[in-house]
Amino acid sequence: MSSELDKLNYWEEVYKKEKENHEESNIELEEWFEENCSKIITWIENHFGEEKKKHVAVLDIGCGNGLFLHKLYKKGFLNLYGFDFSREAIELARKYFQKNDDNNIYVEVLDICNIEKDVHSNSTLRRKYNLLNDKGTFDIFFMKNKQNEYFTHISFFLQVNTLFCITTCNACKEELLEIVTYFNKKNNSTIKLSLLDEIIYETITFAGKKGQIITTLIFKCLFLFIQGHIDKDYPYISSTKNESKNEGERESESKNERENANQNKGKSENKNERENANQNEGKSESKYEGQSASEDAGENANQNEGKSESKNEGENSGKNGREK
User: Fold this and answer.
1) Which residues does the annotated region (Disordered) include (predicted)?
2) Which of 28, 148, 182, 245 falls between 20 and 30 A from 193, CA-CA?
3) Whether domain 8-224 has CATH 2.40.50.1020
4) Residue 156 confidence class, pLDDT cut points 50, 70, 90
5) Among 190, 309, 180, which Cα is nearest to 240's?
6) Cα–Cα distance between 18 and 25 in angstroms, integer?
7) In the predicted model, what is the mean pLDDT of residues 59-88?
8) pLDDT band at residue 122 under the 50/70/90 scheme
9) 154 CB neighbour count, 10 Å cutoff
10) b/e for 135-149, b at 16 or more Cβ within 10 A?
11) What confidence tens digit (pLDDT) does each residue in 176-204 have?
12) 191 has which bridge partners?
């Protein structure tokens, strides 16, 4: 579909003219989806609550003139960030923030297609966000059938528990869910988008069908850990987990082998000790038996010697008697 909405020059002219009108005639700034913006802000307020407002970090993707961030600031949100590829838009936003003393809003010029290159480790935009908001930028990619490219770029900011609020006037709920499902299956990450909520707007009827002019879905970034889903839809995760599991099993097996070896070694040592003890005991008994046998032999010899002497004495006595 041919459109000027993805052309930088188009938006530069739009925001340049808006800046001139605001400065010269004090004409209020215009916001994309302005008539529905209040519902989005109300949802954000209700979700995070009064106590968390000051600590919630929000990133507005394609922030334009910054009016959405300004409204959040007026509601008590203090960690607000945004980017847009139009320099005229960012200059207008900064002047508007300065005029209204919006001191806690940071915006910069950034092309969504260059996020990976331009948002380096020292960049102010490089941080953990509680909420990503997009109302309009996705549509530009969708109209050019590049919605998958859009999610690839945005995934740079996705972290566990980050909320992602998308508002579109081109894709219906079912189409957006289908796109997100495809992204979940194809992106090389264990972080997946899960539908959290939907903002309901006034419906219209066309050709016998009811629907909303715009769609706003809120997704939550989750770490995928359900094994059944991993095996079915994300085999690369399953294989990684299995490799880790196999390593663990190998370590466990090695540990068991070492324990068994130590046990066998202990058993062998105990067996050798018992055998040595038995051998020593046998030697001791043999020694005692030998000593006893020698003593008995000596006694028998003495007894026999005594008997022999007695016999000889008797024979000599008888002989002497006859001679007399």
Assistant:
1) 236-324
2) 245
3) no
4) very high
5) 190
6) 10
7) 96
8) confident
9) 22
10) bbbbbbbbbeeebee
11) 999 999 999 988 878 999 999 999 998 88
12) 223
Mean pLDDT of the chain: 79
Cα 9 to Cα 17: distance, rounded to the nearest angstrom: 12
Q: Is 66 left (phi over 0), alpha (psi -120 to 50) or beta?
A: left
Q: Which run of H or E residues covers position 268? A: helix 235-323
With beta carbons less than 8 A apart as the criterion, state whether 129 and 59 touch.
Answer: yes
pLDDT band at 297 (very low <50, low <70, confident <90, very high): very low
Q: In which residue are the tokens 């324990």 written?
A: 259
Place of tokens 């006893």: 292
Query: Which of 258, 261, 183 minimizes the C-alpha distance to 224?
Result: 183
Report d(CA 161, CA 74) in Å as an integer. Answer: 25
Extract the tokens encoding 233. 């839809």
What is the domain partition of the chain in residue ranges? 8-224, 251-324
